[in-house]
Write a structure and sequence with these properties.
heterodimer; A: 566 residues; alpha+beta; 10-stranded mixed sheet; 3-stranded antiparallel sheet; B: alpha/beta; Diaminopimelate Epimerase, Chain A, domain 1; 6-stranded mixed sheet; 7 strands; elongated
């Protein structure tokens, strides 16, 4: 902790001014000129620690020459999450699991990053921005706007890897230009040639497995122009997280980004106007990480957790730009209130629509059922992916190597597909592709069917075929949704029962349609039963949405984890 | 005159009376086949056509129905036709038949036709497609959805296979609709309530999903925060060679059908119900 040279008060970093500010006499000091930042303990990494850092390459990352500095480690006895601080303070809650308890503290050491982006957004600004953000969300629970709760926003410096990449050398990319001459396609083949010198420095990815990529991607980007040399004084009044993800994890994403930028710039050269390059040409662009490779840095993030029983929702604010990413569940009462308002408006709008025959009503209800089932399926898929953190490469690289390898293999496969040899006639065929003719044919057929569609509501068109198609689609989507629900974190009998009932009603409707039962009540009964099952399913979908808007309590595999947290 | 002559005279008169009684009672206003009975309404001057080929109504029912048709005829021609269809009569067959029937006789004059198109030889019990078509000014007021509702109501509010009840109810509802603009549509309101609830929930859910959509920055936004440089030199386009590929142009442009329609070739409104 730094003391004010004037009055001895505590010095804390002030984002507004970018200086250390005394809480007592309000004197300001340059963080690089005050003593504690220079007093960090120096210690060289052991061979084991160096081997941990990367895939054997000392050039891949730069860790401040292996220096460490003294920190107080605060660990949560429930989830095992740890945050670090250069100040001595009592922390009454955990930012990772939202538990309200005093965190265990002990002295520790932390590897010094090379760079840092100091906080620019103050806590008050953060709270104000977040309050405005939540205000736009119609169904946000009231506690998400509670000023008392927003006080729990905590400034944490998240570890990031900052990559520098470049390309310096000749590029030769194949291209062509074609035109038709009678029954022949004439293709002129070219090479687009040029010497390229380019670099992209400051591409960043988070280096902490406890900071989900979902959040880090959405609060991006950070402005690398404001990176400064690391100094422990910037940490005054804030916390930090430990870096545990290797820089090699995001190397392919960094190189792909640079490749795309170089390619997009190259093909826009005036000399190449009028020719076309295929996607496979892009893979001839091969940028590399520069000499420094990946540099470790701390980036500022405001962090808040809302705990609800065994789930937690996070609010994350970029401490430099103020960009927000937050999980906001639905308050059911507000949801129902707004649903009723929209229902009234919908009812008034439906009065203009002519009365539907029972069969048409069935078809419309079935179409809506398919939409609802698809929304449910999409929500379930997102829940599974989020709960298992299937899109968090950093986490997977440490805690789920199998899934990580699968993810990397999938990315490589996608790239390899684009690397297929270019077809010299590809452009020539483009004008004659079945795809183009098919689209035109489909449009003509759709237009010719338009009178039938209009006549549909006059009851002159047979509905059986359309209805049968809807039934098949609903069956497929419903069964997939039921299978997906097996992977949900919570018991899912309600969802399965809801989908099952809907499918049974659909089969009943299919039979009465095919048998051409005369009585209207059969059709109306079937349609109403289907619509009731749709309404029930929508409420279930809202429940699942609230699972999506939260995540399971973290069980961070660091010291201090506790299984009873679940 | 002898007794024999008197008897012959009486027999001749009775025979003449018998033949005369078998002639159609109503005068024909235009062309039609033998089962059609044409009447000119004295009030409106419009034509009533009664063509019960399938013979579903008795004389009393016929008379009552003609009275209703006469009331309705102030708005246009009114036809009641029963016929049969090989196999099962469906909506498109009924619409085509009704449209052809009316148009052959009246073209697009204002009018309404009610057709009962019976299944032929399919089941022991009679089943039919009840179909109503409207033309001219009536087409604007009695749209297909209204035709459907009229026949739905007729079916639901009468006894099973009460053909007279169906027909009479249909004409009465059509008359009430033209006279007052009102038609009972209870199912429309009930189904609209359900649909409105579903749409309300769906709109809400879509709003919620939209609110939490990913806001991952695009490349342009990312580039603003980077140190970047891009320079080129010696840029040129080198010609490599030319290829010729044989690709004959097809004679047709892709097919597709133009025209066609759900209701046949003449402008009309039509709707029905299976009974």
């Amino acid at each position: 902790m730094n003391s004010c040279p004037n009055c001895g008060g505590e010095l804390l970093f002030d984002p507004g001014s970018g200086k250390l500010k005394c809480g007592f006499c309000e004197s300001m000091f340059d963080p690089t000129e005050i003593g504690a930042g220079k007093g960090a303990e120096e210690e060289t990494l052991t061979a084991e620690q160096a081997a941990y850092m990367g895939e054997g390459s000392a050039k891949e990352e730069h860790q401040g020459d292996g220096k460490e500095f003294d920190v107080t480690q605060y660990s949560c006895p429930q989830c095992g999450g740890s945050i670090y601080s250069t100040d001595e303070s009592v922390t009454g809650f955990c930012s990772y699991c939202g538990a309200s308890l005093v965190l265990n503290s002990r002295m520790s050491k932390m590897k010094m990053p090379e760079k840092i982006i100091p906080f620019r957004i103050t806590k008050e600004q953060c709270k104000e921005k977040y309050r405005a953000h939540v205000g736009k969300f119609l169904f946000a629970p009231a506690e998400y706007k509670d000023p008392e709760y927003l006080e729990r926003f905590r400034g944490i410096y998240m570890p990031y890897w900052v990559y520098n990449t470049g390309f310096n050398g000749p590029l030769v990319l194949p291209a062509n230009r074609s035109h038709r001459q009678g029954d022949y396609i004439i293709t002129e083949n070219y090479h687009c040639v040029g010497q390229v010198e380019s670099y992209y420095r400051g591409i960043s990815y988070d280096a902490s497995s406890s900071f989900d990529d979902h959040y880090s991607r959405q609060i991006a980007p950070f402005d690398a122009h404001t990176l400064v040399d690391f100094n422990t004084n910037y940490l005054s009044g804030y916390y930090a997280d430990m870096q545990d993800v290797k820089p090699a994890v995001y190397k392919s994403e960094v190189l792909d980004f640079a490749k795309n930028q170089i390619y997009d710039s190259f093909i826009k050269e005036p000399e190449f106007r009028g020719v076309t390059m295929g996607d496979s040409a892009k893979n001839r662009v091969k940028p590399q990480l520069e000499a420094e490779g990946a540099v470790s840095a701390f980036f500022p993030v405001w962090f808040l957790s809302f705990r609800n029983r065994d789930r937690v929702a996070y609010a994350v604010v970029n401490g430099q730009t103020g960009k927000i990413c937050g999980d906001i569940p639905i308050d059911k009462k507000r949801f129902i209130l707004y649903a009723l308002i929209f229902s009234v408006l919908s009812y008034l709008a439906l009065l203009i629509v002519p009365a539907m025959t029972p069969k048409v009503l069935l078809v419309v209800a079935s179409a809506i059922a398919i939409v609802c089932l698809s929304l449910l399926l999409s929500t379930l898929d997102k829940i599974v992916r989020r709960d298992k953190r299937l899109d968090d490469k950093g986490y997977l690289s440490l805690y789920n190597r199998e899934q990580y390898s699968e993810t990397v293999a999938r990315q490589e496969k996608k790239k390899a597909r684009k690397e297929q040899k270019p077809d010299p006639n590809a452009v020539a065929k483009k004008a004659e592709t079945p795809g183009g003719r098919t689209i035109v044919t489909l449009i003509i057929i759709a237009l010719s069917l338009l009178p039938n569609v209009i006549g549909y509501f006059s009851g002159t068109l047979e509905t059986n075929l359309v209805f049968a198609a809807e039934a098949v689609i609903m069956l497929i989507v419903g069964l997939i949704a039921m299978a997906k629900s097996n992977y949900l974190p919570k018991k899912t009998m309600g969802i399965k029962a809801g989908i099952f009932i809907m499918l049974v009603v659909m089969i009943y409707n299919l039979f009465i349609n095919m048998l051409m039962v005369a009585g209207d009540w059969y059709y109306y009964g079937g349609a109403f039963a289907l619509m009731v099952s749709i309404i029930l399913l929508q409420f279930m979908t809202v429940d699942q949405y609230n699972l999506l808007a939260t995540r399971p309590l973290p069980q961070l595999n660091r010291k201090g984890g506790d299984d009873s947290a679940r | 005159m002898t007794v024999r002559d008197k008897c012959r005279t009486i027999a001749a008169i009775l025979t003449a009376l018998l033949i005369f009684s078998m002639l159609p009672v109503y005068s024909r206003a235009g062309d039609g086949d033998g089962s059609e009975e044409w009447t000119k309404s004295k009030e409106s001057g419009n034509t009533l056509v009664y063509d019960d080929k399938y013979d579903v109504l008795d004389k009393k029912e016929k008379k009552a129905l003609l009275k209703l048709m006469d009331e309705l005829s102030i708005y246009g021609n009114v036809c009641f036709v029963t016929d049969s269809e090989p196999g099962i009569a469906d909506e498109s067959d009924a619409d085509r038949k009704a449209d052809a029937y009316y148009y052959e006789r009246f073209e697009d004059e204002d009018g309404l036709l009610l057709l009962f198109d019976y299944d032929e030889g399919y089941t022991e019990e009679e089943h039919c497609m009840m179909w109503m078509v409207t033309y001219g000014a009536l087409e604007k007021k009695i749209r297909p959805s209204k035709c459907n509702t009229i026949l739905d109501n007729a079916y639901n509010n009468n006894s099973y296979h009460d053909w007279y009840g169906y027909a009479a109810s249909s004409f009465q509802q059509a008359y009430d609709l033209l006279e007052t603009g009102r038609l009972a549509e209870p199912m429309k309101y009930i189904s609209n309530i359900f649909l409105a609830l579903i749409l309300g929930l769906l709109i809400n859910f879509i709003i919620a999903m939209w609110s939490i959509r990913s806001r991952i920055p695009g490349d342009d936004e990312v580039l603003l925060g980077l140190f970047q440089s891009y320079k080129t030199s010696g840029v040129k386009l080198d010609y490599v060679g030319t290829t010729r590929t044989y690709s004959p142009q097809s004679s047709s442009s892709g097919g597709g059908r133009s025209g066609g329609g759900g209701g046949g070739g003449h402008s009309h409104s039509g709707g029905g119900h299976r009974a």
